Amino acid sequence: MAQLNIVKTSDVQPQNIRGLPKEAGQIKKIIATERFFFNVDEIAPGYSPHHWHKHDQYVHEGIKVEYPADFEEIYFVLSGTGVIQWKTESGEVQEQQVGPGDTIHMPPDVVEHQLLNNGTQKIRIAVVGVPPPKRTPIK
Q1: What are phi and psi of 95, to 5 degrees?
Q2: For every residue of the chain, which 3-state class applies, written as one string?
Q3: How high is the pLDDT of residue 139?
Q4: What is the reported pLDDT for 60?
Q5: In terms of DSSP bridges, do strands 37-43 and 72-79 run parallel, antiparallel, or are they unpaired?
Q6: pTM exceeding the 0.85 threshold for the entire prediction
Q7: Which residues of 85-104 are buried (b: 16+ CB within 10 A; e: fewer)?
Q8: Is 72's pLDDT higher than 90?
Q9: What span, in angstroms and rounded, lies between the C-alpha atoms of 45 and 37?
Q10: In this structure, are strands 63-66 and 134-137 parallel, antiparallel, or unpaired?
Q11: Mean pLDDT, the chain, as a whole number?
Q12: How far is the C-alpha of 19 from the C-alpha of 137, rounded, in Å?
């Protein structure tokens, strides 16, 4: 039988948002298993935790990150406000305001998108992704 795992958020080392300084916000990678990951992200006004992207692949700091074809992601807004933006197949940008209690679901093969903090305070989101992307060091 598996043991219960309790993680105190205060014990998790925050990481800077990919490619941005600490002032932009930070990500706390709470739990990552072979089946899912769970993060808590805090993003400063004017920033996004992940600029315009699709769930395919990218390279960062010598690591190639590849998303599985069936990858899904959920953002749950804990506090603050922002705008989720996405591009239609014709490239037109659509957007919708989000705030505390709102959930954003990105299904497999989701269009290019980003969550932008357009508010005046940090936006704090819980993030779950399944199955997690494969990370391979580039030699």
Answers
A1: -155, 155
A2: CCCCCCCCHHHCCCEECCCCCHHHEEEEEEEECCCCEEEEEEECCCCCCCCCECCCEEEECCEEEECCCCCEEEEEEEECCEEEEEECCCCCEEEEEECCCCEEEECCCCCCEEEECCCCCCEEEEEEEECCCEEEECC
A3: 79
A4: 81
A5: unpaired
A6: yes
A7: bbeeeeeeeeeeebeeeeeb
A8: yes
A9: 25
A10: antiparallel
A11: 94
A12: 17
Amino acid letter, residue 114: Q
Q: Are strands 123-130 and 37-43 parallel, antiparallel or unpaired?
A: antiparallel
Q: Tokens at residue 93, please?
A: 């940008």
Indicate whether 122 pLDDT > 90.
yes
What residue type is 46 in one-letter code? Answer: G
Pairwise pLDDT comparison (19 vs 132), residue with the higher score: 132
> Regarding beta strands 57-60 and 63-66, do their DSSP bridges make them parallel or antiparallel, or are they unpaired?
antiparallel
Displacement of CA 53 from its chain's centroid (Å): 11
